[in-house]
């Protein structure tokens, strides 16, 4: 990822409805959410949601797929991964002791589901 792509992704997320929409799509991976349902869940008009989704799509953060008469949106997890890696790749000049807390905090949310006995 280059700086211009990262700036576009960050700019797309720098608006409350788009940030909320993106986070909602991440929570609904891998199933995705139809556009109309997204508008309802975020409580915005469908045409407004379409504009927000177009911005997120151009920024490489969401993908869409037509299913019959609706469009299903998903978070582009590769785009999220690329952006995250771009932001932390040179974390703390390679000082493991400074980056370890960040990595430790991310690990539990991305690890295998804990099964209760």
The helix/strand order is HHEHHEEHH
Low-confidence stretches: none
> How are the strands ordered across the major sheet?
1-3-2
Annotation, overall tally of beta strands: 3
Sheet with most strands: 3 strands, antiparallel
Distance between the termini: 42 Å
**Oligomer category:** single chain
What does this protein look like?
The chain has helices spanning 3-13, 16-27, 35-42, 46-58, 77-88, 96-110; strands at 33-34, 62-67, 70-75. It has 117 residues and is mainly alpha-helical. The chain has a three-stranded antiparallel β-sheet with strand order 1-3-2. The longest helix has 15 residues, at 96-110. It starts with a helix and ends in a 7-residue tail after the last helix. The mean pLDDT is 89.
Spell out the key features of this protein.
single chain; 117 residues; mainly alpha; 3-stranded antiparallel sheet; 6 helices; 3 strands; elongated
Layout of helices and strands:
Blueprint: H1 3-13, H2 16-27, E1 33-34, H3 35-42, H4 46-58, E2 62-67, E3 70-75, H5 77-88, H6 96-110
Antiparallel strand pairs: 1-3, 2-3
Helix pairs in contact: 1-4, 2-4, 3-4
